[in-house]
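Our preliminary data section would be incomplete without showing what the modeling component actually yields. Below, a chain of 220 amino acids is followed by its predicted structure, encoded as tokens that our downstream tools consume directly.
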Amino acid sequence: MEENKKEVYWYNNPNFITTLAISIAVLIIVLSQSFAVKNNIGTNDILRSLLNHNSIYILGLIYFIPLKTLSGKKHFNHLNVFLIIVYLVFSVTGILTIIQSFGLTSLVGLAINIILLIYLIHTLLIDTRLWKDFKLEKSPLNEIKGESYYYTLVILSIILLTVNLIQTSTMAGTIISILGCIYTCILSRYIYLYKVYIDEKKVNNDKKKRKKETKKDQVV
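Predicted structure:
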């Protein structure tokens, strides 16, 4: 009897999504720096651009690359906390940016960072001690489905991309904006898939628990 093999599409494959996130982040960093060199920008300006505009992707690589190693998988929860801290910092920075210079780009960017932060906290911390310590199981935001978070982030990313494309006047800016949008969507998909995994794991554990209880009752 042949077993039915369920086809897994690329967007439902966590390993492929992780690889894609790494590839997009590297591509953004390399292209942005190559564009800077072509524009004859000085070394100090290039380094400043790398740290200011590409820091989110550099930190993303620090998170995703270790996940490809045994050590990274072992310290998965620590990496998750690191990623949450990263988006906490960027959310605070986004608030300060709006105070200094209010605009549609900064507003949408802040919304994306805050939603990502909430999504990360309510997904990646579930299997950690922090989830119980901060009583996050009682958070009303748990009622929001993963799909809602995911599609909201995709829509906001497309809106931000549209605004950036309208404002940019260079091919370099267009390419970087498109890749940035793709990276945010990929990151959102990664979180979504982990939430699906957690939900399925919970369902399977509940089934096993009920099965054991049924067997115990039969023996008694």
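The two ends are 36 Å apart (CA to CA). The first helix runs from residue 14 to 38. Preliminary results of this kind motivate Aim 1 of the renewal.
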